[in-house]
Amino acid sequence: LRPYQEELVETAVRGKNTIACAPTGSGKTEVAIYVAMSHLNQRETDKQPARVAMLVPRTPLVEQQKLRFHTYVRGKYYVEGFHGSGLKGSSRRDIVLACDIVVMTPQILLNMLKSIRQDERLYVCDFSLLIFDEVHHCTKDHPYNILMQMIHDYQGPKPQTMGLTASLGVAQVPNEESGMAAIFDLMANMGATALASVKRHVDILAQWVPKPDDGEWLFLMVFNKEGATCCRNGRRRRIGRAERVVREANNVRLGALQVSAFTGSYARHPPRLR
């Protein structure tokens, strides 16, 4: 991993439910693969069963992400992928249960979790880690959110969750309060206790990530004991009570100084920063 990618995996490899936020092109898939392999290795060491599901919101991404996993884990772990036109019924269930890592769309997993046929059905406890690509979709009636509601309600052992995103759902927010609320809602929906972003190696990140176009803004959330400051293109604006809200609503531990970076398109609806 590159140094900034190592930052993004720190909390997830310790077993915390994490949302990792980094710009497009920064290598978040490699972050997911590293977390998945670390999880499987640790569970094997602890002699615990393990199975990872990588969820992607669009069918073309299934084969793409499956091939990326194969590049790194071939020969060590069994990887398979499913989407709406894949195998049906018990054949699919049997293959999923034989996998170490399975890539699928969330609707496929939902259908199998809800199936009334025993030979088709999966259970939440069949998975030890769920990774959500483009996790900013985990809102309202999106399959991601429906799936997480099922997990929240499930009374048995719950899998660890990790989300990957470049925007945190703040792409069209009208002001900073709405942006913070969107972040808090996303973390609550995901049951996340950690928000991972690049802090110590921003300079290295900048060497690997393409420069944003005019419609893409870079935000830095700087948290300290006095509150939180939002920096947009070098302009600082105060966000009142943000640190307290993060601590109380999401139980996130902040050090003396924490910087979170995220990007979003504001070409049509620029935020009103007071």
TrEMBL record:
Q: Where is the Helicase ATP-binding domain?
A: 9-186
Q: What Gene Ontology molecular function terms does this protein carry?
A: ATP binding; nucleic acid binding
Q: Per its UniProt record, what SMART domains does this chain match?
A: DEXDc
A GO term from the CC aspect: cytoplasm
Alphabetized InterPro entries for the sequence: DEAD/DEAH_box_helicase_dom, Helicase_ATP-bd, P-loop_NTPase, RLR_Helicase
Name of the molecule in the record: Helicase ATP-binding domain-containing protein
